[in-house]
Design brief:
The complex is a heterotrimer of chains A (about 150), B (about 280) and C (about 725). Chain A is α+β, with helices and mostly antiparallel strands. Chain A has five helices and five strands. The chains are: A alpha+beta (about 150), B alpha+beta (about 280), C alpha+beta (about 725).
Chain lengths: ~150, ~280, ~725
């Protein structure tokens, strides 16, 4: 067991865990932040996406021993003091969410894309790591376009 | 099974730990190892967490040659100015998984994981990369083209870790080509892949050439024989066809869950033709 | 006609929870003292169980273990029949068949223990192909539809086109895996919470398993992360397993969440198909005769195969007039993991075949694919081969022409042919499909379901809907809210939907078969109108409701499904009105085939849809776009590799679904034929239809790109395209 200290959504936590425990499980089980989801357990579906030290990561692939001192943002931290983030608002208005299971990861990736539009060639590349089985992506693209205007 | 982790804070500490004889698996971005852990395919082992080693910090320094610190990620390259001189590294990085993998996965990890389908290794190998392998005993430099010997067999002792990757600055006149053939546009394991570089003079004579393939051999394959066949030749359609045939003797693709030997052979020859006939599949950076 | 809420894109009712990550899916529920359950499964396709060994190295006395002998009631899953056991007792009929169950509080130890159990099986020969199953006459069900006699028509035909089409299995890949939580009071009752489409199916399956009467089996649906049919009947099995473990443990809560590999390996998939079509045409393209032999692989147990076959059979002749049609549909038994419900439910396979065939015939006749359809489209007053008269004022030509116009079909067809002649490494193609999908259960299915729905006044002056139909992304909550709000004439904010919980809601039927809007929505409308009537048709419903409750207390009413008098189906003869309403659609798909990689990708997609009144345009378009994406996957990417009848590539990384980068721009337009259907505000079902049309449109587009070379098998993998090019 080891003790790891890190912040999530602006709040500092200290957690005792096996060093190779997945950040996904620490968030869900130890911190009761269930917005990150396990869709595949192998870093393919993107449902476990969070932001760590400003970058997109797959929490099912991050061992807790590498999280010491890191700053993490999950979907629960996106809305600032009661106001929805513009991407959340847009998803509501434009139908970007259907069953909702991919939505937390998708919204974080979309928010990242709006803040870093030049890191990928286009929006399709930016979201290629977040699978959605419900929407066919059309309303997700429309939501992000609406949020960017 | 609980896996222990050792987290050294200096390279000496890390190399001491590796020299101790314990079965320590170096852990960098963890994007490959965590999948194995979850699948239950790792036997009992402990991990050496490299993330706290300042000497391996992602650095991309140009000093007559490009040196990538061992913790350099794919994203580090995609956002670095060095991509102007090494566009193929950015093209390759773009093909790895998706953004959330690129922010964590390391080039050194890609080399050490030794998958025959590695996306980063072919680009490095096409640039004549050399790697530093460090142990308590010594630091030695090995050409990446000579690093692999068989499926997951490499010239790395258990007490060594990769500490840096060096790429000579490309001479003017070289053109690059990187094409990954996957099951879909992103988030795909390659069925075949060509990382090619060519130096052509005004008469279309091949001054020099590199052709590195993934997924058509037990390890990343530098097609030395086909390269040799092409050096000094003029690139006519007949010579291109000769190369597309010659590559068949160097590759050893198989049928597997993703594709067939026949497909891999056919498409690999197509990639050779595509590359040598001057196609540029990669677009802007 | 102007409406208050119908036709408006109200925000998704549970949307705020979803975009803030607050929705609670089964695995998000934290339980004190819970056990984690796992299923021990067979690794051979056919055999007799000799013994189960619990090997050393695991503290088995700490485990809860369930074997068939522990089952208190009947070891059979009640669905259409009751042939599939919850746990195989002696005979194993497919790889991954459940044999035993284990549970323990330590989820990692359970996973470890799974590998310390050995099931000794005496192997028996396995039947793994449809051909072998037919030879042995292992047929679960067959249907014959005959209208006229095609065999008399062949000599009149100028051209006869005969071809066989094959489709493989398709995996749902809902991003939330199968998940159940169960808590029993041993000897008395069982409660299950979980990811599902049909709470009452689960209740019906679990009551006899425990020898309980249904009121003592309470099933509650939790927020469900995708279903697509994969959570129609399979939940019966996993719920039964979780409940058995809880029962055996003396009443501890049991969580059973499949990991992705197990989910892909062991659960249901779309029925593979082999469809042979022989069609006779006059030179001008008039369709004279159709003879179709349709075979589906049902896997090892019947599950829903009879109904999948039925729907496939009833959709395979396409939207065309044909006086001489014969369809023989058969579903066979093989020792494969049982196939089950998947969006479309037999129609995607059938429509793939007939629409590919029409495009192929067009080529052979030298007629444009749009023209051959124009000559043969069904019109109002025409009959389907079952005898059903098309009562709606349909205009398929207008619908097709709109799709052709939106897509620029004719110009692109010519442009692509010109482009392809230039010898570049890309080839472009454009293809077309026209199709229908029947809403609701086939034939007398809805009569048999006899769905009931309740509605009650709330203290706020609104209404609460009590229905068993679930939300899993398609928009149930929002659409039913809009219908209730419109019918009551109240603000949608005043409509509540009770969580689907068998102890609190009546059985309004399963959430399947594109029936929720048309059938259940109609019940909502009728219930709302009944409440209005009881309140004496008030101008201000809100006040009237509050006043009523102050004076009389609660008001809750229940309505039941009523079939309309002019819909008649004969089960025995398999003739009559198969569906109360049909939705219609035309798809135009564009592809690019790359000659270096032999890879086909969809580059543009147009869909014109007729589904009666669109209740919520954003949600409806979302359904079409999502179904099209799954159809693109079915056509171009999704390959279930079978080994011994089970999925070999059971890893997310090795089952290829389209990502955002593989999905083209999708343009959806709704049209409305003049109304005559029994849905609320003349709305029809649309959930499944969008997945029916993409495969033949894409398959034909690829054929166009390849200069008329048709590949008659799905998915159109690069390896198959390469093979087709090489052998031509």
């Amino acid at each position: 067991m080891m003790r790891v200290s890190f912040t999530v959504n602006g709040r500092t936590y200290e957690v005792a865990a096996q060093p190779m425990k997945r950040l996904l499980d620490v968030l869900r089980e130890d911190l009761a932040l269930t917005g990150v989801k396990e869709g595949c357990g192998e870093g393919e579906c993107g449902a476990c996406t969070a932001i760590m030290d400003g970058l997109l990561v797959l929490t099912c692939l991050v061992p807790i021993c590498q999280v010491e001192g890191k700053h993490i943002t999950t979907i629960e931290g996106l809305a600032a003091s009661g106001h929805l983030h513009k991407v959340q608002q847009a998803f509501l208005e434009k139908g970007g969410s259907q069953c909702g299971i991919c939505t937390p990861g998708m919204i974080l990736s979309a928010a990242y894309y709006l803040d870093h539009p030049d890191e990928t060639r286009d929006i399709r590349e930016a979201l290629a790591g977040n699978q959605c089985r419900c929407t066919g992506y059309t309303k997700i693209f429309e939501s992000i376009k609406a949020a960017s205007s | 099974m609980s896996f222990e982790v050792v987290t050294p804070h200096s390279l000496d500490e890390a190399l001491d730990a590796l020299a101790s004889g314990e079965n320590l698996v170096p852990l960098a971005g963890a994007t490959d190892l965590m999948v194995c852990l979850e699948a239950g395919t790792l036997g009992p082992c402990s991990f050496l967490n490299l993330q706290e080693l300042p000497q391996l910090r992602p650095t991309l320094s140009m000093n007559g040659s490009l040196t990538l610190g061992a913790l350099t990620t794919y994203r580090d390259v995609r956002v670095s100015p060095i991509r102007e001189q090494f566009p193929m590294l950015a093209w390759a990085a773009r093909e790895v998984g998706a953004l959330a993998i690129q922010s964590r996965g390391t080039w050194a990890g890609n080399i050490a994981n030794a998958s025959p389908a590695a996306d980063g290794v072919p680009a490095l190998m096409a640039h004549d990369a050399e790697i530093d392998l460090s142990s308590k005993k010594e630091r030695r430099r090995v050409p990446l083209a000579k690093f692999y010997r068989g499926y997951k067999e490499m010239d790395r002792r258990p007490d060594e870790i990769i500490t840096a990757i060096h790429l000579p600055l490309p001479q003017p006149g070289w053109a690059g080509y990187y094409r990954k053939v996957g099951t879909r546009r992103f988030q795909a394991i390659s069925k075949t892949l060509l990382a090619g570089r060519i130096l052509l003079d005004a008469d279309r004579k091949v001054g020099d050439i590199r052709m590195v393939f993934a997924s058509v051999a037990p390890y990343t394959l530098r097609a030395a024989q086909t390269e040799a066949m092409l050096r000094g030749r003029h690139l006519t359609p007949e010579v291109i066809e000769e190369a597309a045939r010659a590559i068949q003797d160097e590759i050893h693709p198989i049928d597997d869950i993703r594709s067939t030997e026949t497909y891999r052979r056919r498409v690999t020859s197509n990639l050779v033709r595509d590359f040598l006939s001057g196609q540029h599949p990669n677009g802007p950076l | 006609m102007t409406f208050q809420t119908i036709g408006k894109s109200l925000r998704r009712k549970e949307g705020i929870l979803k975009v803030t990550g607050q929705s609670v899916y089964a695995d998000d529920i934290r339980l004190e003292n819970c056990l984690y359950g796992k299923t021990i499964r067979s690794t051979v396709p056919h055999g007799h169980i000799k013994e189960i060994h619990f090997k050393d190295g695991i503290p088995w006395d700490e485990f809860t273990i369930v074997l068939p002998s522990d089952i208190p009631g009947r070891n059979a899953v009640t669905l259409i029949d009751a042939q599939q056991p919850f746990l195989a007792e002696r005979e194993i009929r497919h790889v991954a068949e459940p044999v035993a169950l284990i549970a323990h509080p330590d989820k990692h130890l359970v996973e470890k223990a799974r590998h310390h159990i050995q099931v000794d099986v005496e192997d028996l020969p396995a039947v793994l192909t449809m051909e072998e199953a037919l030879e042995r006459n292992n047929i679960f069900k067959s249907y014959l539809v005959q209208n006229g006699d095609p065999s008399e028509k062949w000599r009149e035909a100028d051209v006869i086109v005969e071809e066989t089409y094959r489709t493989g299995a398709q995996e749902h890949l809902y991003i939330e895996p199968q998940a159940m939580i169960a808590k029993a009071v041993t000897g008395e009752s069982v409660t299950v919470w979980g990811s599902m489409q049909c709470p009452y199916y689960v209740q019906k399956a679990l009551a006899p398993l425990f020898g309980l009467s249904p009121e003592n089996v309470r099933i509650v649906q939790t927020e469900t992360g995708g279903g697509f049919g994969g959570k129609e009947e399979y939940p019966n099995m996993i719920a039964g397993h979780a409940a058995l473990l809880s029962w055996k443990s003396g009443g501890l809560p049991v969580k059973m969440i499949y990991d992705r590999r197990e989910d892909m390996w062991a659960t249901t998939k779309r029925h593979p198909s082999k469809i042979r079509i022989k069609a006779g045409f006059k030179r001008d393209g008039t369709l004279l005769a159709l003879d179709i032999d349709l075979v589906l692989d049902g896997g090892a147990y019947p599950t829903l195969s009879a109904v999948v076959l039925s729907r496939a059979t009833l959709h395979v002749w396409g939207p065309y007039r044909c006086a001489s049609t014969r369809v023989l549909g058969r579903v066979v038994m093989t020792n494969s993991v049982p196939y089950g419900a998947f969006r479309g439910f037999g129609a995607p396979q059938a429509i793939y075949a007939i629409e590919m065939h029409m495009n192929r015939a067009a080529l052979e006749l030298g007629i444009d694919p749009a023209e051959i359809r124009r000559r043969n489209f069904l019109r109002q007053g025409d009959r389907m081969p079952t005898g059903q008269v098309i009562k709606e004022e349909i205009d398929l030509e207008m619908m097709m022409d709109r799709a052709l116009e939106l897509s620029g079909y004719h110009q692109k067809r010519a442009d692509f042919e010109e482009f392809n002649s230039q010898g570049k490494t890309q080839r472009k193609g454009i293809g077309l499909s026209v199709f229908f999908h029947g809403s609701g259960f086939t034939g007398s299915g809805e009569v048999r379901l006899a769905s009931e729905l309740s509605m009650a006044l709330t203290a706020q002056g609104g209404v609460e809907i009590f229905a068993a139909n679930v939300e899993y992304g398609q928009g149930t909550n929002t659409v039913l809210t809009q219908i209730a709000a419109e019918a009551c004439s109240i603000d949608p904010e005043l409509v509540r939907i009770h969580q689907p919980d068998t102890s609190a809601v009546p059985n309004s039927g399963p959430t399947v078969a594109s029936r929720t809007t048309m059938i259940v929505g109609k019940l909502v409308e009728r219930a709302a109108l009944e409440l209005r009537k009881r309140l004496k048709d008030p101008a201000d419903f809100e006040n009237a409701a509050r006043q009523y409750m102050a004076e009389h207390g609660e008001l809750r009413i229940t309505v039941q499904y009523e079939t309309s008098n002019d819909v008649y189906w004969d089960d025995e003869a398999y003739r009559g009105d198969a569906y109360a309403g049909y939705a219609w659609s035309c798809n135009v798909a564009e592809v690019e085939v790359d000659a270096v990689e032999y890879m086909a990708r969809a580059t543009n997609f147009v869909s014109v849809v007729e589904c009666g009144r669109v209740i919520n345009p954003v949600l409806a378009a979302g359904q079409i776009e999502g179904g099209i994406a799954q159809g693109i996957g079915f056509a171009l990417y999704e390959n279930v590799v079978l080994e011994q009848g089970a999925m070999k590539n059971n890893q997310y990384t090795n089952y290829i679904v389209p990502t955002s980068a593989d999905t083209p721009d999708i343009h959806v337009e709704f049209i409305e034929f003049p109304h005559s259907n029994p849905g609320p505000y003349q709305a029809k079902g649309i959930g499944e239809m969008p997945i029916d049309g993409p495969a033949p449109a894409l398959g034909s587009a690829v054929a166009h790109a390849l200069g008329g070379r048709f590949i008659n098998e799905l998915p159109l993998l690069p390896e198959r395209i390469m093979h087709a090019l090489e052998s031509s």
